[in-house]
Design goal:
The complex is a heterodimer. Chain A is α/β, with parallel strands linked by helices. Chain A is built from 16 helices and 13 strands. Chain A is 35% helix and 16% strand. Classes of the chains: A alpha/beta, B alpha/beta. The structure holds zinc ion.
Chain lengths: 447, 572
């Protein structure tokens, strides 16, 4: 490629080159300065940004200006007026257009040489293989659900061998950012090595909910009146319609009902803005917190890609409410995490068939209600696929094979998928007649 | 108007109308629109400041296109200030945009009065000599100065202003001031209407816990010489007295809430030492005809606390949710709100009296202003920052303190602080920054060490400076512009987080400490931020000494794992 195409005119990447071409003492493992590192970053490395909102816009800009040449971005949303106070890639005339598409266009126009491919869809719409294609995934999301989904996909790539040793080549690093008002976090997740989202679920505070009887009988706050209109009145009075928080008429109706109810109970403080906040569970957001968190995430992505400086281990919280405070914690992996660990130990008879083994799993109390028609894979190979029919047919013959035939003498880790599961269930199979007991604790990949 | 509200909705939810108004009145001057300055301004423009003026004398070079989103390929060779101004204007057309094509250093000499017109001057990538001049000018004109410096993967942020006062500091968690320990007559009267021993189970489980606590406290005092539970044994007894009233046949949320909140009876919120310092500040004692409104309000507040308040602040007036019938709760809410109003009226009386005494118009401070002030009285903040000249001069006097910080296990802040300042002194001597030329990289390491060491100790060798950091700072090869966009984004934005400076409401700006400077009587101890991105703890900034220990951690395990994740990848 010529210099005009990539925008690599003399001196453009001087500052990045200082880092990539010079040895340092505070660098990542095995860092050897070389011009090939920048080539790799610009020509071969593929990074996926999930979310093109407040964090996403910043991430795209930062990654493009950090020298990443190939970026994909995925977001299902369209641009709203309330995005414009921080999502700087969007303008008033973009309102209504897909975020991913507009963001990609703007970044490519401003930063010559970078390729940004937009995907305007839900993350669930992409096959798992799509995510496998990237070297690193950077998350700019605002919901736990989306994080959990992507976490389970990325963790399902992990393979452990019969000794319980993690195959390092199956690790897909993730960098995650999150903000709320003046606060935020940035974290680096090396699935199987550092804690995944599921290992540290407790970091996400539970949502506040109100008892229904309070809403119905003894409302005391404006939020009680709003939630009554939202959770009870709508269903009673507009039975045939689905409530859409982005429909202004729906929101206005909600506000008016809440206001009436508040007046009836002598409660003050119901406003349109509060109604929106409660119903849409709006998280306050400002540009500078997003910028700080996204910058940290991009820098970590650069460090993982180039090793030019030592990386974050593994969770940085940022609090800008009074002064500026950051604190980085090295959280520990949950060794029994059902999403990223070696797996839940299960004893089985080496001679039992895969079919019998699957029935044993369904009957297992630990997974009760979570399995109905499971699919099973081992070291990346499908042993049995419940769907689609063509794969079911291809793998059906394995049902009558014995476990020792499928997994080898020592057993091993199998990934179980089921419609009813939120993610993958990892099961560590040990044969009952084998000399050694399964031990999830001393051989897991994080050692 | 409606669209404006919609556009700023997410930030209005943080700093409210007052904050937005302050932001919209702000006149910001940016010196140098490299990536640090561009980032700072970009986010202020998005938020809706009133106006900005960029001062920058450079032309767009190829290296700008590797780190600055507000300069584009088409603008190569044209003015940085002009290009950034037009691209910023695209972000928000309600902001008034100006630029001056001149270097900040030149403007400082030719027209120092220029800087007096702004609310805030953001100085990026300026060296010490220029900053000293600028700080002096800004102080003369009561303009707040933010100093932001990005340097490779490291940076430094500093705020300089004589005095910054914050009324609406928006604390994370509101202190509940419920006065169970000293109810006023109207509250006692309201509680008297409730029978906490009522035989009707539905009514019993719907008495607000505030009433339960008031009643039990009243009974307790009657049987204990008017005293409150004083030790853990008595407190346990007090809780037993609450439990004894519960109906065993019912799930009674209100009694559970009363038990959980019982401690509020014996440990009501007190006046914090920080607020006490504000109340006792000399500025409130030595009022004159020109005193800022803030200090008159503080003086009136102090008079209230000593007088009508009998040691208490004016009541804030809001109460937490309590499981109860709607009308019992709303009624209780009203009793608190009425008291808050009457307290604010009393403070207002003091305000009028003081204004009159000072020969000022007694109505010049409006009742809503006083009410707003009283509502936020518990969280008033006053921040004072020492002049840069004092800080730069102080290093020599504080060498012992710095030496010992450098010798401690976590010496990154002290080291980086000295090295970033050392780099400026290096530039003054050698006319370039350390590490700019590959051929002199090694010599520059020892030169920088000597220069930075000299700041610590005249003629010193800098032996106390950790080699890793000296090498790293030289590796950055950072001149005025050698910046990494992501670092600049952080450096450019950190100061914006700090409130008040623009959005007079919000969060007080207490950026780090440079513990090097210790406390002086007239300033907040936290007045500079330096951090280094790229170190194990990423953005490391100190905010309280006692939190420093916990910042220490090891990244050794992560390092070894990463090398396995990407084996030999670099040769791909
Ligand atoms: Zn996990």
């Amino acid at each position: 490629m010529g210099a005009m195409d990539t925008g690599n005119m003399e001196g453009r990447w001087r500052d990045l080159d200082y880092l990539l071409l010079r040895q340092g003492n505070i660098v990542g493992p095995g860092f050897e300065p070389a011009p090939e590192i920048r080539d790799f970053l610009q020509d071969d490395f593929k990074v996926l940004v999930i979310g093109a909102g407040g964090l996403g816009c910043e991430l795209l800009k930062d990654l493009a200006l950090s020298g990443f040449g190939h970026i994909d971005v995925i977001d299902m949303d369209t641009i709203d007026v309330s995005n414009l106070n921080r999502q700087f890639l969007f303008r008033m005339h973009d309102v209504g257009k897909p975020k991913a598409t507009v963001a990609a266009e703007r970044v490519m126009k401003r930063v010559k040489g970078v390729t940004v491919i937009p995907h305007h869809c839900r993350i669930e719409e992409k096959p798992d293989e799509f995510y496998k294609d990237f070297h690193i995934i950077v998350l700019g999301l605002d919901s736990l659900e989306a994080r959990s989904y992507i976490n389970s996909v990325v963790c399902s790539f992990l393979e452990y061998d019969a000794d319980g040793t993690l195959d390092m080549s199956t690790i897909k690093p993730m960098v995650d950012g999150g903000t709320e008002g003046f606060k935020g976090h940035a974290r680096v997740i090396l699935p199987g090595v550092t804690p995944c989202f599921h290992c540290t679920l407790w970091l996400f505070p539970p949502q506040t909910t109100f008892p229904l009887c309070t809403l119905a009988e003894t409302p005391r706050s404006p939020a009680h009146c709003i939630e009554y209109a939202h959770l009870i009145q709508w269903g009673q009075e507009r039975t045939s319609e689905t409530f859409d928080a982005d429909n202004p008429e729906h929101m206005k109706w909600m506000y008016e009902q809440a206001l009436k109810r508040a007046e009836q109970f002598n409660i003050s403080g119901v406003t349109y803005s509060l109604t929106q906040g409660v119903v849409k569970n709006i998280i306050p957001a400002i540009a500078s917190t997003n910028a700080i968190i996204a910058a940290s995430c991009s820098l970590e992505a650069l460090k993982i890609a180039t090793m030019c400086s030592s990386g974050m281990d593994n969770y940085m919280m940022y609090v800008g409410t009074q002064g500026v405070y950051t604190h980085t914690v090295s959280y520990e992996k949950d060794m029994s995490c059902i999403v990223c660990s070696l797996g839940v130990p299960v004893h089985a008879d080496a001679d039992s068939t895969l079919d019998q083994f699957m029935k044993q799993l369904i009957a297992d109390d630990r997974f009760s209600g979570k399995l109905s028609k499971p699919s099973v894979s081992h070291l990346g190979e499908n042993l049995y696929m419940a769907a689609p029919p063509i794969l079911e047919e291809m793998t059906r013959e394995n049902l009558s094979k014995s476990l020792v035939e499928l997994l080898g003498e020592k057993g091993g880790t199998v990934n179980v998928n089921d419609k009813k599961l939120a993610g993958v269930l990892r099961v560590q199979v040990a044969f009952s007649d084998a000399a050694s007991e399964p031990n999830a604790m001393d051989t897991a990949g994080a050692g | 108007m409606a669209q404006k509200k919609q556009k700023y909705d997410r930030q209005l939810r943080i700093w409210g109308e007052h904050g937005q108004e302050a932001l919209e009145n702000a006149k910001v001057c940016l010196l140098n629109c490299g990536p640090t300055g561009s980032e700072a301004l970009k986010n202020l423009v998005l938020g809706g400041i009133g106006s900005f003026t960029i001062v920058d004398g450079k032309k767009v070079e190829p290296s700008d296109l590797g780190n600055n989103f507000l300069l584009d390929h088409d603008s190569l060779g044209s003015s940085r200030a002009k290009t950034a101004t037009s691209l910023l204007q695209e972000l928000n057309d309600t902001v008034d945009a100006q630029f001056v094509e001149e270097s900040p250093e030149a403007l400082l000499n030719s027209n120092p009065g220029f800087f007096g017109d702004f609310t805030l001057v953001i100085a990026t990538q300026l060296t010490e000599s220029a900053l000293l001049k600028l700080d002096k000018i800004c102080r003369e004109h009561s303009v707040t100065l933010l100093v932001a410096r990005s340097y490779g993967l490291a940076g430094l942020v500093r705020i300089s202003t004589e005095e910054h006062t914050v009324i609406e500091s928006k604390p994370d968690s509101a202190v509940e001031d419920l006065r169970f320990h000293c109810p006023w007559p109207a509250l006692t009267e309201y509680a008297a209407d409730f029978d906490i021993d009522t035989k009707d189970p539905l009514t019993h489980k719907h008495i607000p816990y505030g009433i339960i606590l008031l009643k039990v406290t009243e009974e307790w005092k009657a049987s204990h010489d008017g005293k409150l539970p004083a030790n853990s044994k008595e407190r346990a007894e007090f809780k037993e007295a609450i439990k004894a009233r519960t109906n065993p046949l019912e799930e009674e949320e209100n009694y559970k809430e009363a038990l959980a909140a019982a401690f509020k009876v014996w440990s009501p919120p007190s006046i914090s030492s920080e607020l006490r310092t504000v109340l006792d500040d000399r500025a409130a004692e030595t009022l004159d005809a020109k005193s800022p409104v803030f200090w008159i309000l503080v003086a009136a507040l102090n008079a209230f606390v000593k007088g009508e308040g009998a040691g208490e602040l004016p009541l804030e007036g809001s109460i937490p949710d309590m499981t109860s019938f709607t009308e019992s709760y709303v009624g209780l809410q009203r009793v608190y709100q009425e008291k808050a109003l009457s307290d604010a009226a009393a403070v207002e009386g003091h305000v009028r009296r003081l204004l009159k005494k000072l020969g000022r118009e007694p109505a010049s401070i409006s009742p809503p202003t006083v009410k707003h002030f009283c509502k936020n009285a518990r969280n008033l903040r006053v921040l004072r920052y020492r002049p840069l000249a004092e800080e730069y001069g102080a290093v020599g006097n504080k060498k012992g303190e710095l030496q010992s910080l450098l010798g401690s296990e976590d010496n990154s802040h002290a080291a980086l602080y000295l090295l970033l300042r050392g780099a400026d002194h290096f530039a003054a001597t050698y006319n370039r920054f350390p590490g700019v030329f590959d051929s002199e990289l090694e010599e520059d390491v020892s030169r920088l060490k000597a220069v930075a060491g000299g700041l610590l100790n005249e003629g010193g060798s800098g032996a106390a400076l950790p080699d890793d950091y000296v090498t790293e700072v030289c590796r950055f090869g950072a001149g005025h512009q050698a910046d990494h966009e992501a670092v600049c984004t952080t450096v450019g934005n950190v100061p914006l987080q700090r409130d008040g400076i623009l959005i007079g409401c919000a969060k007080p700006l207490t950026i780090v400490d440079a513990p090097l400077f210790g406390e002086t009587p007239r300033e907040s101890k936290r007045n500079a931020l330096n951090f280094m991105l790229g170190r194990k703890r990423n953005v490391a900034c100190v905010s309280h000494e006692n939190e420093r220990d916990s910042l220490e951690m090891s990244d050794a395990s992560l390092r070894s794992h990463l090398s396995e994740v990407f084996p030999g990848r670099r040769r791909d």
